[in-house]
Amino acid sequence: MKLxxxxxxGLLFGVGLAMSSxxxxxxxxxxxxxxxxxxxxxxxxxxxxxxxxxxxFRFILKRPKPIDDTCFHINPSxxxxxxxITGSAIFGIGWGLAGYCxxxxxxxxxxxxxxxxxxxxxxxxxxxxxxSTKSSTSTSN
Length: 141
Known about the structure:
Blueprint: H1 2-19, H2 25-32, H3 41-60, H4 82-98, H5 102-107, H6 113-140
Helix pairs in contact: 2-4
């Protein structure tokens, strides 16, 4: 059941990204170019996602458990710490340079050469971050 829900969710996400043209790195870069030829369409896609989440999570979290798991896995920490700020800044710089974030990059994988370079690089970055987090945690203990 988990695999089926993951596949259906991924397909729905990919179709939504493609329909809204958010798989086009130039559209995303146009949104980030606030001093030039600004393209506000990403704001509408993000707004739709936030509105949907605000409405549906109210009902979903009232359930005793998710459809495909034994409990909800919600991080209880709301801490804004150095790790969060640094990671967000690095993510934002990468997004601004490439015009891709992980979802759209994966969705464009079959159609763009940039994604063939971006996704392995992203995976290596995630592995480096995980390794550095583990090493800093083990040295502080």
